[in-house]
Sequence to fold (168 residues):
Amino acid sequence: MRLRLLELLREGPSTATQLARRLGESSGSTSYHLRVLAKHGLVEDDEGHPGGRERWWRRTERMMLVKSSPADEPEFEAAVAKLREVFLERDERALNAFFASRPADDPWEAAAFIGGWTIYATPEEVEQLSGSLLETIDRLRRAPEDRPPGARRVYVTWRALPQPGDDA
Fold:
C-alpha cells in the first residue's frame, strides 16, 4: 500500500481521501500509511494546499532509487527483498493484463514491446545505461495537465542482471 501511495503521489499532491478512493481503501488506512511514510521522510505536507479541512500530501523526492550493498543491515535487506518481490509480482500482473486484453487492431499492439538481450559491459557501463534510460522514463512521467492527447498509462520495467559464472 505504501509503495502504491508513493506511486500515486508521483502524479501530484493528493489527500488521503482521494488516494483511498483510487486504491479502494479507507481514508483511515491511507492516512495511517501516509503518516508512516512522512515519519521516514518519504512524503510531506504540500504547502501548495494550505489549510482547509483535509491535509494534502506530496512526495519529497521526484524519483526514488533503492540500492543495497553487502554492508546493509539485515532489516534493510529484508525490506529490499520484499520490494523486489512486489516489483516482480507487478511485472507479472502487467504482462498478464496486456496479453489478456490486447485487441489485434489496436495501435498499441505495434507500440508495445518486450525484449531481452545479453550484453557484455562493465558495472560503470551498466550504470550509465540505466541512468540514460531513467532520464528518458522520468521525462515521460508527466503530470496529467502535461500529457499529450492520446497518451495513456504504460507500464515500463528495466532490469540489468549480471549472470553468474560468466566472467569471460
User: Anything to note?
Assistant: The beta strands are 14-15, 43-45, 56-59. The mean pLDDT is 86. Helices lie at 2-10, 16-23, 27-39, 74-101, 107-111, 123-140. Residues 45 and 57 are 5 Å apart (CA to CA).
